[in-house]
Write a structure and sequence with these properties.
Helix content is 30%, strand content 22%. The protein has a domain of 191 residues: P-loop containing nucleotide triphosphate hydrolases (Rossmann fold). The strands form 2 sheets. Strands 6-7-8-3-9-10-11 form a 7-stranded mixed β-sheet. α4 packs across α5 and α6 runs parallel beside α7. A hairpin with a 2-residue loop joins β9 and β10. By secondary structure, the protein is an alpha/beta fold. The two termini are 28 Å apart. The protein binds adenosine-5'-triphosphate and magnesium ion (MG). Adenosine-5'-triphosphate binds next to β2 and α1.
Length: 325
């Protein structure tokens, strides 16, 4: 499905930093470098899976793309438009085409609004649909995400977790967006429900020609849905490539470790030379010099401690001085 056309989303050297403030005058004494110089493209119709350990900056990256966070540096091009410094008013127009789904839809749904009103709100706010047509649209949304119309008058707490995520998805597709950032949309759900929601997202992708950035902790969670996979470590992309290729022959030691942690149906396929990741994730406020992974890498060499490896321009790119063969 990947096309040679220009990317739908182009991220150039994006940095998302959070100031660390101290003292009575709240002086900025440093920064949490949640996303630190990330460049990548997302092409129309594909699903880019983004994986990495907790705190590595996945949500900060996803939220920056939809401009829920303001980038510290860098550029965000979406649909041939530079949206890096768009003001909130201008973003309203962009957000009909660029949406986000959260891990916990409950936190983002107003508990005092009925579903009918939650879903009608974007149509009313954007004034893109005549008032008389709004309920027809709401019914169609419910239908698309597999919720009975009879549920329209319920409040968010009257739904199961899976159903609530369906409401979150319905709201995101109100204007048939081009790109949806899915920030761990199934992580909080029962395993049996996870597959249903993943199937729904896959069906909607076909139906509406959607493009996804799909964020997950574990690499196994992105296997089913992704076209390509990007691996993040401490604010950086350390490897990116076609899903099958990356699963078959990971080049970064960190990717290899993530793949080993992912349980395979046949334990004999795991191989006998399992390497173990050592130590804790360093602080993103004080990332290690050189390669950020060097403090935990089983293959560390002298150069890794002093020189930062760059992520090359190849289709399967890796940021490592000694990539795995
Ligand atoms: N609003 C904020 N202010 C200050 N620091 C923040 C803020 N949001 C995130 N951080 C910090 O930025 C780093 C990256 O956090 P982020 O939520 O992006 O990680 P994540 O990869 O999404 O983690 P998880 O898998 O647990 O969701 C963490 O060290 C986190 O503590
Ligand atoms: Mg997160």
């Amino acid at each position: 499905m990947m096309t040679a056309s220009s990317p739908l989303l182009q991220i150039e050297q994006l940095k998302t930093y959070y100031p660390i403030k101290k003292g009575v005058f709240s002086r900025t004494v440093g920064h949490v470098k949640a996303v630190d110089d990330v460049s990548l493209c997302i092409y129309e119709g594909e699903t880019l899976g983004l994986v990495g350990e907790s705190g590595c900056g996945k949500s900060s990256f996803g939220r920056s793309i939809v401009r829920l966070e303001d980038p510290y540096e860098g550029r965000i091009w979406f649909d041939n438009e530079d949206i890096t410094s768009r003001k909130q008013k201008e973003l309203k127009r962009v957000r009909t085409r660029l949406q986000i789904i959260f891990q916990d839809p409950y936190a983002s749904l107003n508990p005092r609004q009925r579903v009918a009103d939650i879903l009608a709100e974007p149509y009313i706010a954007h004034k893109l649909v005549p008032r008389s047509e709004v309920q027809v649209r709401v019914n169609r949304l419910l239908d698309m995400v597999g919720l009975p119309k009879a549920y329209k008058n319920r409040y968010p707490h009257e739904f199961s977790g899976g159903q609530r995520q369906r409401i979150g998805i319905a709201r995101a597709i109100a204007f048939e967006p081009k790109l949806i950032v899915c920030d761990e949309p199934v992580s909080a759900l029962d395993v049996s429900i996870q597959a249903q929601i993943l199937n729904l997202l896959a069906d909607l992708q076909q139906e509406l020609n959607l493009t996804y950035l799909f964020i997950a902790h574990g690499i196994g969670a992105v296997k089913y849905i992704s076209t390509r996979v990007a691996v993040m470590y401490l604010g950086k992309i350390v490897e990116i490539g076609d899903k099958d290729e990356l699963f078959r022959s990971p080049k970064h030691p960190y990717t290899q470790i993530l793949l080993q942690a992912y349980p395979k149906p046949d334990p004999t396929l795991r191989g006998d030379k399992r390497i173990v990741i050592q130590g804790d994730v360093p602080s993103p406020a004080h990332p290690p010099a050189g390669c950020r992974f060097h403090t935990r890498c089983p293959y560390v060499q002298a150069v890794c401690r002093s020189e930062e490896p760059a992520l090359g321009p190849d289709a399967h790119a890796v940021a490592c001085h000694y990539p795995l063969a």
